[in-house]
Amino acid sequence: MAGSLANMPSAGPSYIIAARRTALGRVGGLHRNRRIEALAAPIVTAVLEDGGLDASEVDEIILGNSMQGGNPARLIGLAAGLPETVSAITIDRQCASGLDAILAACRTVERGEASVIIAGGAESISTAPWRIAKPKSLYQLPHFIGVEPRAEDNNEDPQLFEASELLSQRLEISRDQQDQWSLRSHLKAGMAQEKRKFVGEIVPLRGNAEEARDQSAGLDPSLDDLTSMQPFLPPSGTLTPGNTSAMHDGAAIVAVVSQEVWRRLGEPPALRCVMGVSQGVVVGNEAGAPIEAMKKLYSRLNGFNTKDIGLVELNESSAAQAIAFTSTLGIEDDLVNPDGGAVVRGHPLAAAGAVLVVRLFTRMVRQPEEGRAKYGIAALGALGGIGVAAMFEAI
Length: 395
Fold this sequence. Notes:
alpha/beta, Peroxisomal Thiolase, Chain A, domain 1, six-stranded mixed sheet, four-stranded mixed sheet, 12 helices
């Protein structure tokens, strides 16, 4: 028995050695005819190529998805040419699913249970099956179930916009502050596009310019445009289509490998997950979930100086949430979403958290070494009131 245990894979660190994503497309837009496997499989292929990995080396594929149903990770893995022997699992924690999948992959490798895992998130809302609620009686008609269940579906939680409105009211965040945040985010995204910051990150699924940039990032609104938009909750609401993130299609994938594989590949620049946490919040504070997750993360870093964190990628559901996040936690605005956030590029539901990790990889690994952050954070809130935050280190 002792001899067999000695031959078991040893636990150790895990490394993210490659990270790619699609351009994010508006629902019914850029990816309107792409089924989830057509959307995500090319990204898996690109990640394997970037990492110098063969499909035969992959032990498992772990993906986040909320709309497809079944186990789309298996479908995507086969479409990408992974062997039929590769295990597959799909995780659903709504918006946080993709980040959860990556964290699960890191933990699995660190326990010595796998050497190479493909992980991330994919969401094709445009082609996902419709969800229809069964009538309670023969005299009622069925109705569609949206991403957020309605009150008649026995859900007492505030809806997304209502939760953010509650947060903005509690912290006295004005409509002007939210519009100004949104405008700055658009300007940062435009500057990043001009400087070609997304080259090497986005995989164009076809050879045209539209496929190389996020579809909503080119809207380039003025402050007058933003202030003229009608609120979702009139007459006193502050959230509008201009200062909130809209649902999008997209996929984001990374390759997680063991230390042994990392060394065999020549110890390429990589990300290492330092810690990931999740935190639920009370009803009425759903929009504050990322803040509570960050507080929990800070409390578990055991004396780590948070001033050393040089980058935060936040998937904000609204500008109000982003403002609350920075002000409550004392984070400098310039450290959060330096190339624009979800208010600009859109919110690909279960792929959103994986997009954050791909963004960290670009800023901390892919870009020229000068000015890179050593430590970065990915944080977001999931529908239902759960926040997830993770810290990564550039290696």
